[in-house]
Design brief:
It contains twelve helices and ten strands. The protein is an alpha/beta fold and 293 residues long. Strand 8, helix 8 and strand 9 form a beta-alpha-beta unit. The protein is globular. Bound molecules: ribulose-5-phosphate. Its EC number is 4.1.2.13.
């Protein structure tokens, strides 16, 4: 007998089971499309809601940064321990094996070097090339209060529009000019502007006072930038505090690859972010892994 003719009793329609509407675990993302949510779920672990991102894009304006002279030697072995890697298309194509299945967050802005005004950036990657490289998110700096503030915001809104066309989230990084005060008031302004103008993720710096007001007033997930190299226990403490005060993860570079034991640091940061480990326990864990070589 054809399937069409089978009587109702032989089939199971689960008439008493309501359809699962799959609420989404990430702040501010419930109205996004399937592709966007799926990509976000590759950056932020659905089981913890958090991410450990490894930032290695520094060369795009400052050349071979300490620790990044040979990313094929020092950095590629760390990648399996990150949820996502943030890098340029140049390093991705030349240096990262395409067998890597980690989420790629691609730096899409550039222009000035450290010798010039850093806020003078333009978009530097076509969305088609980002798609070709199978990226999970696209990213750029915004320079609130900087000389080219409006241009950097316009770069961001264009990137957001391109990303929305293809279901690719945009992460805005709040860059801080040399002469600006890094305080909660500044970062509340910068993070909120980024989210209001469409960024689906914001990356910003930790401040010891009122960081929770930055995360509370930003309607999308915030990931904490690492900043300059700190002693490992301090970097782990900063990460713990950022998570406890509402960050959805970290995106660290120098505090990992400039550590004298980068792999141990990578693993210790994972413990803090995904396993609620205390900074001291994570530091002990770091030292154990480091001692194992
Ligand atoms: C600023 C960036 C960098 O990728 C990132 O912030 C640098 O990482 P870290 O400060 O942890 O070394 O987005 O250009």
């Amino acid at each position: 007998m054809a399937e069409y003719d089978k009587d109702k009793q032989a089939k199971e329609y689960y008439l008493d089971t309501p359809v699962n509407n799959y609420g989404f675990f990430l702040k501010g993302a419930h109205s996004l499309d399937w592709g966007m949510k799926n990509r976000l779920s590759r950056i932020f672990r659905p089981d913890t809601g958090k991410t450990v991102m490894l930032a290695i894009d520094h060369g795009y304006f400052q050349g071979p940064t300490t620790g990044l002279e040979r990313p094929d030697v020092n950095i590629v072995p760390l990648m399996p321990y990150a949820d996502a890697i943030m890098l340029t298309r140049g390093i991705l194509r030349t240096t990262v094996p395409p067998t890597l299945t980690k989420a790629v967050v691609m730096r899409c802005s550039g222009g000035p070097s450290i010798l010039k005004e850093l806020s003078d950036e333009e978009l530097a990657v076509d969305i088609e090339d980002a798609i070709r490289m199978n990226v999970v998110a696209i990213t750029l700096q915004i320079f609130i209060g900087g000389e080219f503030e409006t241009r950097s915001i316009h770069n961001m809104t264009r990137l957001v529009d391109m990303g929305l066309r293809y279901g690719i989230p945009t992460m805005a990084v709040t860059a801080v000019g040399k002469d600006m005060v890094r305080d909660a008031k500044y970062f509340r302004l910068a993070c909120r502007m980024a989210a209001e103008l469409g960024a689906q993720i914001v990356k910003t710096y930790y401040v010891p006072e009122d960081f929770d007001t930055i995360t509370a007033s930003c309607p999308v997930p915030i990931v904490m930038a690492g900043g300059k190299k700190l002693p490992e226990l301090e970097a782990l403490t900063m990460s713990r505090r950022a998570i406890d005060e509402g960050a959805s993860g970290v995106d660290m570079g120098r505090n990992i690859f400039q550590s004298d034991a980068p792999l141990a640091m990578m693993k210790a940061v994972n413990k803090v972010v995904h396993e609620q480990m205390s900074p001291q326990d994570a530091f002990d864990y770091f030292n154990t892994i480091k001692a194992e070589g």
